[in-house]
Amino acid sequence: MSEPVVLVRDLKVAYPLAKGYALSGVSFEARRGEFVLVVGPTGSGKTTLLLTLAGAIPSLIPARVEGLVKVAGRSPAEEGLAGLAGTVGVVFQDPESQYVMPTVIEEAYFPGENLALPPSEVERRARRALELVGLEEYSDRRVETLSTGLKQRLAIASALVLDPEVLLLDEPTAHIDMRTAREIYGVLGELKREGKTVVVVEHRVELAEELADKVVYIRGDGTSRVYPSIRDLVGEVGAERLAAEGVWIPPEYAPCARGSRVAGAGGPGGDLDVKVEGLTVRFGSITALSDVSLEARRGELVAVLGPNGSGKTTLLKVLAGLVRRYSGRVSVAGGPPHPSKVAFVAQVPELQFTERTVAEELASALRSQGLRGGEALRRARELLEARGLGELSEAVVYELSQGEKRLVSFLEMELLERRVYLLDEPTFGLDMKYSSLVAAEIGGLVKRGKTVVLVTHDSWLLFLLNPRVYGLSKGRVVFEGDLRELLARRGLWGELGFLPPRYALKLLEEHGPEEAVSEYSARLGCLHEDLGA
Amino acid sequence: MRTLERELRELNPSVKLLAVLAGVLHAALLSSAAVLLAHLLVAAALVALGRVRVRRVFALGALATLAGYTWVNFVLFVANLGLAPGEALARVLLLDARIAAIILYSAFFAGTTDPAALASSLSLQLKVPYVYAFMSFVTLRSAPIVLGDLENMVAFRRVKGYTSWKHPHRYLLSLSMPLLYLSVRRATLLAIAMESRGFGKLPHRTYVRPTKVHKRDWVFAGLYGAAIALATAVSLFQ
Predict the structure, then answer these.
(1) Of B190, B195, B204, the CB nearest to A97
(2) Which of A278, A470, B205, B220 is deepest in the core (most CB within 10 A)?
(3) Residue A299 above 50 pLDDT?
(4) Average of pLDDT values for A61-78?
């Protein structure tokens, strides 16, 4: 048997000033051509593990590292991130933070040039890497004009140029629609077959499950155990416990098929709260939205689907009164759109934050409703207690986990008590626990008669919330209907970047849309109800 | 015109940078009307021929600054130095010409220079260590991202009704903290991404498309130098 390419023995990592270990005895190994899936709850140290394997910890990010770590026979702690360049390739979840050069081909040249390879060799490797990820036709395009999915492919290509033995990926599809995510995993499958060792942290477990040769489960306390497959992990630990820890368990592993949907929110509703007719938005020579018409009634949940760059966020910004140059008619809460008429939950929660602590942040929303300082703060603390989040009250907002930040941004917008709620990818990058809590919040809004327009890439959310669906493609509405109709119109999925979750797809192919929706929703509901959603 | 635009945009960035810096220094040191007028005309011509696109907000900002600067200086010259309004105005206009020339030179350089080519050129032609050259380029590339964050933050504050005009420092603080947090997070991720791609591993690197000094760069430097020299000569004979 070949020597392990990645060898981790009793790895412990402690950040300066932190109370305990971020990782507390992680052990696993991976041989050439093996695909390792790392799962665990938010904050369990999955990203810390990847950064340690890459050598970024402790060379760039200070931390104490104990235990044995070898990557291709080398020590990441001793050689550092730059020292391992060429041996290890790293890809993160946000492609915007990874590219350096202005054009696709120059970005692909960048690693080879840094290692002072002869220009002809740099050119050859760059072209090959772009071909491998299907970007050869984009080589002269400026990177900022690519969709998020294509940028992530470019990040993978850039990591592949140096022909690394090991590829480390931290939630590489978090920002990407399901269809593109599957394509990226197709590329990773190719790399595995070529003999690359791949270690990937992924919340959307079903994407990586088929490729995984082993699953490293990192518990909340930073310890780990290795399983041959997700099925074995679920069999030993239990779906309920994994779900409660935030691990994304595909619903087919749910032990029951009881449960109900969180919202059941596709009902007819009351008066029209959102009405859009013939909306066209142009930014210079780019048409972001073209002749879009959409309606949402009071107490109705409307989901807007579409691939990256299809105009979904622009539509929300028009409804919020933040984009004011458009043609067509737009009515929100009975009049022209204005920021004071809507609550808008941003993709990046930090953009919303104005205060230091969680209680102060929520109180600032209450103050804008007219409440005085002390009273607002008291009400904010009461609200947090009522939601079981009392311990977060005095926490600094920037020190929260990503899931907690999203919840706080959600609660803050709820406090504004607006008629119309605009939610931009409210579950992206969240573990199962926080996704369930956010889904429950959305359901709660709808039950209270709020009109919700939701933009999402997460197809599972449609099964859980049962909204009315609008499909956008290249700025145009190409679909309007409910989830069953969408499932029945398979020809549109590609255009919408839509792909049902794996088990739902299986049910659809075997039993049709009705059974797929009811069975998948029930299993999903079962898992999410266990989380209190 | 298109050919001239292309030629100006394809000038070697280091040559362009040195020429513009020499021009700015020249305009700052000499206060003759002929020199400043020449700089103003040359800089305006470069901006026009390079078809530099300036965002409206920046153009308005520059104009507002210039107008404020003019007014303050005029008042100071008249009230403090006791100059006649006509003479005060003439002096203020000379100062304005200097500032306007510097703004136009900067706009020409920023609007016609590819940051990646600038980084390569600084490293290849001016022998700046490539790590520093690329750092400046990456910083420039981050500017629109930070600006986008700022725009989004202002928008979300409008949704929240968070204006706090009574305490403007609180409003500014509410913007600066998340901006700083997001910038540091992005910078850390970018640094990891760059280092993992071999950046800084070796003291030197290769370039698939190296920048070079071409004939057009010599022609540009010659013509520009001649125009400035002519203006200097005219000012000496005045």
Answers:
(1) B190
(2) A470
(3) yes
(4) 93
